[in-house]
Specification:
Length: 148
């Protein structure tokens, strides 16, 4: 379900905006930058200080996550179901994935939130409709970012 391009986008731009559902039905969008790709249909982030998102997911596991490649102006929207695993009891696979990518942060992570993806959509900026190529957008946006 996650193509190679999608997995690369997550690895290169690991800050995903996680949408969960509050008790009153309103949406909550919260940034998480400790994402890892587990396989072709699951990803995970580490809980460092996300009490609201964690409380929502315990009760309602439905989430969406949006990642953005701000250079190439491409986004990835994932829909899925989240499951919380306390670090002390987590699967060896989850622990290994975080050790490989986020070892400096591991001591601050209390739990892993695994998201099993049911739908994945790559979204391109309208800039592509206007005729810009990837190379155009890379040049223009890196110039803008470097000027910050
Ligand atoms: C760029 C960025 C990345 C973040 N990454 C994480 C993360 O990976 N894990 C985490 O628990 N909190 C992370 N945070 C902090 C939470 O988003 C923040 O504590 C937030 O207020 C939690 O809100 P929530 O409880 O509604 O999720 C990050 C914040 C920012 C700005």
């Amino acid at each position: 379900m996650l193509s190679d391009e999608m997995k690369k986008l997550i690895r290169d731009h690991s800050a995903g905006m996680v949408a969960s559902i509050n008790d009153d039905g309103t949406p909550s969008v919260s940034p998480k930058a400790t994402f890892v790709v587990l396989d072709n249909a699951s990803i995970a982030f580490g809980n460092i200080r996300s009490p609201g998102t964690i409380a929502n997911i315990w009760k309602r596991p439905a989430v969406e996550v949006c990642f953005i490649n701000v250079v190439l102006r491409k986004a990835l929207r994932l829909t899925g179901s989240a499951e919380i695993q306390m670090k002390a009891e987590a699967d060896a696979r989850l622990l290994a994935a975080f050790e490989a990518t986020w070892s400096p942060y591991l001591k601050c992570i209390s739990a892993f939130v695994q998201i099993d993806v049911s739908n994945a959509e790559l979204i391109l900026s309208p800039a592509y409709d206007f005729g810009f190529s990837e190379e155009d957008l890379r040049r223009i946006n890196l110039e803008k970012l470097n000027a910050l």
